[in-house]
């Protein structure tokens, strides 16, 4: 994408041109399709020497990303693609710039966690080991030693006798 190398910023705002891009935002929205006409935010990524964008819904833009944008630019109007957006969307972006986060109304339904739903992806707590068994005296019993198998070396002599 030669267009990307010319850009001075690491971020771009635009509308989805087709239904091919997938959202790289936070769970549970990760992997959902960015539908045609949806406002999206792109972050430049370099993968094996190829530069491209990693896209997410505008509503999946995190406060950390907005903070990083503020480090690179003084105003939201300086973002790449900002001037091509509709005035209503430009206003959304200016408001998010001032607040430091995207408005709740802009967060897509796919990014909202359903109340009462347990996250199956969360890390499960590790099982605790059973307490050590105690002998009659109340002291912890010594662990059993593993059985050791003896290796037997068999030699067949030239006379046909076996030696161990």
List the helices and strands and how they pair.
Blueprint: H1 2-6, E1 11-15, E2 39-47, E3 50-57, H2 63-72, H3 87-99, E4 155-156, E5 162-163
Q: Can you offer a commentary on this structure?
A:
Mean pLDDT is 79; it is low at 1-7. A hairpin with a 2-residue loop joins strand 2 (39-47) and strand 3. Helices cover 17% and strands 16% of the residues. The protein contains three helices and five strands; from the N terminus they run H-E-E-E-H-H-E-E.
In short:
The chain has 164 residues and is of the alpha+beta class. The chain has helices at 2-6, 63-72, 87-99, and strands at residues 11-15, 39-47, 50-57, 155-156, 162-163.
Overview features:
single chain; 164 residues; alpha+beta; 3 helices
Query: How many runs of DSSP E, i.e. beta strands?
Result: 5
End-to-end CA span:
75 Å
Stretches where pLDDT is under 50 for at least 5 consecutive residues are 1-7
* Beta-strand content estimate: 15-25%
Number of helices in the DSSP assignment: 3
Radius of gyration: 31 Å
Overall geometric form: elongated
Mean pLDDT: 79
State the share of residues found in helices, binned by percent: 10-25%
Question: Would you tell me the structural class of the helices and strands?
Answer: alpha+beta
Q: Could you give the order of the helices and strands?
A: HEEEHHEE
Q: Order of strands in the sheet with the most strands?
A: 1-2-3
The main pleated sheet reads as: 3 strands, antiparallel
């Amino acid at each position: 994408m030669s267009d990307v190398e010319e850009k001075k910023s690491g971020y771009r705002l635009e509308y989805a041109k087709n239904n091919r891009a997938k959202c790289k935002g936070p769970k549970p929205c990760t992997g959902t399709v960015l539908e045609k006409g949806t406002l999206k935010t792109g972050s430049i990524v370099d993968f094996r020497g190829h530069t491209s964008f990693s896209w997410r819904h505008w509503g999946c833009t995190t406060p950390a990303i907005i903070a990083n944008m503020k480090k690179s630019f003084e105003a939201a109007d300086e973002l790449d693609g900002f001037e091509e957006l509709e005035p209503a969307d430009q206003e959304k972006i200016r408001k998010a710039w001032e607040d430091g986060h995207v408005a709740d109304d802009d967060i897509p339904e796919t990014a909202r966690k359903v109340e009462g739903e347990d996250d199956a992806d969360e890390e499960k707590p590790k099982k605790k080991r059973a307490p050590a068994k105690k002998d009659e005296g109340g002291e912890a019993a010594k662990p059993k030693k593993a059985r050791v198998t003896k290796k037997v070396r068999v030699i067949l002599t030239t006379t046909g006798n076996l030696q161990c």
